[in-house]
Structure formats: structure tokens, C-alpha cells
């Protein structure tokens, strides 16, 4: 899946699960993602997605996950967590995400 963040193209390597299948069926998507905790950007989706929630223990920079059934999250830092998520995928070029840490909100386009 392709993700464009503030006009910069990236690729997401997707997990193989029902969540990603349903997300792909809804593309393209234009989203505004807001900052939270200085380590992630999030947005609430209009419709819920199916979940396969697991306690991940550690968040990796570049991870794309679903919190609950309707909150899409993009992480730009690596850190431990006690929260549970449904894994969607990981941005292949995660080392290039530092620029989003300085922004309160970002514009994101998801495409096939």
C-alpha cells in the first residue's frame, strides 16, 4: 500500500489479516492525522474496521496500527507500550519519518 505524508511518498508493508483487507477495499483515503504524546499521529475513521487486537509490548518507528476499531495510528518513534493494537503494517522507509515529529497535524493519502 502507498502512503503519501505531506506530499512525500512512502510504502507500507502490510500484515495479512482481515483488517488490512477491509482497509484496502476502502482506498483511496485522504486523512488529517493529529499528533499525540510526541510519538504518534492518529485519526478516527468514518467506519469501523474488524480487529485482531494483541498486546504488542513495543512500538516500532514506522508502525501503522489500529487502536480500538476506528482509530488509525502512525508511529514515528520506537517505545515500549502496555496498550493493545491491531497490526496493519510498517512503513518501509521509517528512517525518513523524523520530519513529522515537528508537525501538530499531517495530511495523509492512502492508495493502492
From TrEMBL:
Pfam families xrefs: Cyclophil_like2
SUPFAM superfamilies from the UniProt entry: Cyclophilin-like (SSF50891)
Domain Cyclophilin-like residues, every copy: 3-101
Membrane-crossing residue ranges in chain numbering: none
Name of the protein: Cyclophilin-like domain-containing protein
Organism from which the protein derives: Enterococcus haemoperoxidus ATCC BAA-382
Amino acid at each position: 500500500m502507498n502512503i503519501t505524508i505531506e506530499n512525500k511518498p512512502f510504502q507500507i508493508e502490510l500484515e495479512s489479516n482481515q483488517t488490512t483487507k477491509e482497509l484496502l477495499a476502502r482506498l483511496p483515503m485522504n486523512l488529517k492525522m493529529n499528533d499525540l504524546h510526541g510519538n504518534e499521529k492518529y485519526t478516527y475513521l468514518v467506519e469501523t474496521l474488524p480487529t485482531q487486537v494483541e498486546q504488542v509490548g513495543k512500538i516500532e518507528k514506522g508502525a501503522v496500527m489500529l487502536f480500538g476499531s476506528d482509530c488509525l495510528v502512525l508511529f514515528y518513534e520506537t517505545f515500549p507500550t502496555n496498550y493493545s493494537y491491531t497490526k496493519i503494517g510498517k512503513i518501509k522507509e521509517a528512517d525518513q519519518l523524523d520530519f513529522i515529529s515537528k508537525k501538530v497535524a499531517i495530511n495523509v493519502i492512502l492508495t493502492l
